[in-house]
Write a structure and sequence with these properties.
binds zinc ion; globular; 10 strands; TIM Barrel; 6-stranded parallel beta sheet; 9 helices; single chain; about 45% helix; about 15% strand; alpha/beta
Length: about 260
């Protein structure tokens, strides 16, 4: 009799532990949004630390495909968050910053092969500057026509937005750039990316006022909410993630929590 009581008690403790673990995991999950810059065999001189080799990129894409990740356009994630909908398991978005030519040369063919959508954030005044290794308008048109690539705005000149000296300057970088991209692409540009991931209340407000539906940062820290669709946190992918164990951790949905646990702020 006594033995049975102990067994029941042990069972209850196990159930309680399982429930609290599940609740802990649920509350610390944030949908992974990957932030790439360059994909190139040689380190991009403008982006040395953030160049991923094409073979690494391929292994990462294969990893996502084989593990049945649900790779969706960035705006879809923002919609799910805004409408308080359940995010399907293994949902993930791929983004690229700065609009480097190698996105077209190396990443785009692989994204097509794996049928993965991605968002590329272009610096409007840098488009078509071969000396800066940037995409041309023709490259952009071809990628947009594929239906897989969405173009987002990364300002006109890539300034430090919290340092903007006037509201007019902020407007030009955030709303002016949107208008130019929309006219060139013939479609709405809904997504925005803060240069260097840096933003403040003013620039965030200017993004909302300009009519964007989503904006991404890098990871500003745990003081900032995971579900702010006007400052979504992203995971920086570098050649370090050639190690697929690291890539697995980074795409788990718990990387932001792990990273933030390391820092006080
Ligand atoms: Zn940038």
């Amino acid at each position: 009799m006594f033995k049975r009581k102990r067994l029941v008690l042990l069972g209850l403790v196990i159930i309680a532990v399982i429930f609290s673990c599940a609740a802990f995991l649920r509350s610390h999950y944030s949908v992974p949004i990957l932030m790439y810059h360059s994909v190139s065999p040689e380190p991009n001189p403008y982006m040395k630390l953030l160049t991923v080799k094409p073979e690494t990129f391929r292994r990462q894409m294969r990893f996502l495909k084989e593990r049945h990740y649900n790779v969706v356009p960035l705006v879809e994630i923002a919609d799910l968050i805004k409408n308080n909908k359940k995010i399907p398991p293994r949902t993930l978005a791929i983004t690229f910053d700065d609009g480097f030519k190698d996105n077209y040369t190396y990443a785009f063919p692989m994204l097509k092969e794996y049928n993965f959508p991605a968002t590329i954030f272009v610096v409007i005044n840098e488009i078509g500057r071969p000396e800066q290794d940037r995409l041309s308008w023709d490259d952009i048109a071809v990628m947009q026509a594929s239906g897989l690539i969405t173009f987002g705005v990364h300002t006109l000149t890539h300034p430090y937005l919290p340092g903007a000296t006037s509201q007019a300057a902020l407007q030009k970088e955030i709303a002016g750039s949107k208008k130019i991209l929309e006219e060139k692409l013939g479609r709405k540009a809904d997504s925005f990316c803060y240069p260097g991931g840096r933003f403040d209340a003013k620039s965030r407000q200017a993004v909302i006022a300009a009519g964007y539906s989503v904006a991404v940062a890098s990871n500003p820290g745990k003081r900032f909410a995971d579900n702010d669709v006007f400052a979504l946190k992203r995971i920086r992918i570098s050649e370090n993630c050639a190690n697929l164990f690291i890539f697995w951790v980074e795409t788990s949905g718990y990387y932001n929590f792990m990273r933030e646990s390391k820092y006080k702020k």
